Amino acid sequence: MGHFTQEQLTERYTMTGRLTQIALGLVGVGLVLLIAGIFLESGKKKDTPADASHEGHSQRTEQLVIQPVSNPQDAHQDGTHQEGTHQEGTHEEGSHEAPHTETPADAHSGEAAHDDTHQEGAVHPDAAHADGDHAAAGHGEHHDTGVMGRILANLLLCSVYFFCIAMGSMFFLTIHRVGNAGWHTAIMRVPEAITQWLPVGVVGFVALFFFMDQLYEWLIVPENADPLIDAKRAYLNKGFFIARSVVFFGVWIAAALYLRKLSHDQDREGGLFHFKRSEVISALFIIFFAISYCLYAIDWIKSLEPHWFSTIFGVYIFGGSMVIANATIYLITAYLKTQGYMKWVNDAHFHDLGKYTFGFSIFWAYIWLAQYLLIWYANIPEEGIYYVKRYRVEDHQYLGYSFFFYSNIIINFVLPFFMLMTRNAKRKFLTYVPVAVIVLYGRWHDLFLMIMPGAVGQNPGIGLIEIGMFMAFAGLFVYVVFRALTSSNLVPLKHPYLEESLHHTTGAV
């Protein structure tokens, strides 16, 4: 195998006691911070005066009220539309609507129907609250779940975050196998190890099965209280939700374990049987992945706000998953190389991983912009509501996420784009590692912005609960992945494309 010795190519990773201590220490410290955060937040709840507590409940449960209108002309015929009333009710009194866009369509006769939609669709928070029953008033928002709701939201956030890394790594392996790529062979043990997080990470989702009634609005709002949610109950119901998730998780985990077994069998037995079998499994997985991963994103994240519509949300989650998966593969490979392992990995391998990070960050930004612009231009309340309550800042009722919204595109696109633009930036650890850290935080930042407004309400901030939960998950993730690396050689010795990968080059710098 070129100039590499047999000893080098048969080396196995040994997880050091120090790394084990760091990983388990992260878990321990994270749990301590999580418990401390829970006590602090519980104390704040007890110390809050009754009036302030009632006001906080009102702000959380009466966020942005959109009641879908089946026929805007009906509102016009009933005489409910008046221009002055529309302006006062939706702007001055703080009732929420989609961001207004002046388009040529405003000059047409459809203007009245469009305004009627806003007038009928916007229900003033005070009116809904006065009834004493938000669901009955057509509100369809969460009741204040307090500290428990915040814990569940962070459990969901961290479960999705690390699952994104593992699923991105799974797609990395299968798409290269189906494409008969050879360059990644020398580093494929790293993404293989990352995929072993799947059977561990699924535990967080299973735990959430028992608390869904406190997290998802479509389970909180009773039937016949919200026409739009009622129209989706054939899909959004607890039994079907759990059944879908069990099937998705089961197939993903089975595919990850089986592909890794085929890779190890290839090492022991050689030949092409296991190699060809992995190609078939990978092709079937990609087809299933394309459908199931989009539905998974819709189920676990998007359905937190069931009034919202987006046709590319699953692709959006996929783009972000690939960014952090490639960043994680790069960081782990770089760590192993600095520890004296994987001497066969060269600058060209890191260059290609860096190009993936660079390319998928652009892809993520493209999907972000495509989703935002289409919703902004259409100016439909059920769609625009998602963005309105994330970027509006002039009214405290708009939940306080404007910083997360405006900084999201900077962290996840602008910084990676300019910092990884040059060829050498993708090869040098000193340049890439800070970008990878930014990218890893950026994905958490993005998921925070997606999950918290629908699951918690007003911005809870980044406190001990958020930090503690993430540290505990991160420590367990590090332990599982590096423990998985110890179970086989760091290079697939009998892989038919190994020779090509060992001498991989992307040309002179």
Describe this structure in words.
By secondary structure, the chain is an all-alpha fold. Helices cover 67% and strands 0% of the residues. The chain is built from 21 helices and no strands. The protein has helices at residues 6-9, 17-47, 50-61, 72-77, 83-92, 110-121, 125-130, 146-178, 189-195, 198-209, 217-220, 227-230, 238-269, 273-300, 313-338, 347-378, 381-391, 402-419, 429-455, 464-485, 498-502. It starts with 5 loop residues before the first helix and ends in a 7-residue tail after the last helix.
Task: Summarize this entry quickly.
The chain is mostly helical. It has helices spanning 6-9, 17-47, 50-61, 72-77, 83-92, 110-121, 125-130, 146-178, 189-195, 198-209, 217-220, 227-230, 238-269, 273-300, 313-338, 347-378, 381-391, 402-419, 429-455, 464-485, 498-502.
* Fraction in helix: 55-70%
State the major sheet.
none
What is the global morphology? globular
Instruction: Tell me the number of helical segments per DSSP (H or I, 4 or more residues long).
Output: 21
Task: Assess the beta-strand content as a share of residues.
Answer: under 5%
- Tally of DSSP β-strands: 0
What class, by secondary structure content?
mainly alpha
Average pLDDT score: 82
The value of Rg in angstroms is: 25 Å
Please give the alpha-carbon distance between the first and last residues. 25 Å
Ranges where pLDDT stays below 50 over 5 or more residues in a row are 49-143
Order of SSEs, N→C?
A: HHHHHHHHHHHHHHHHHHHHH
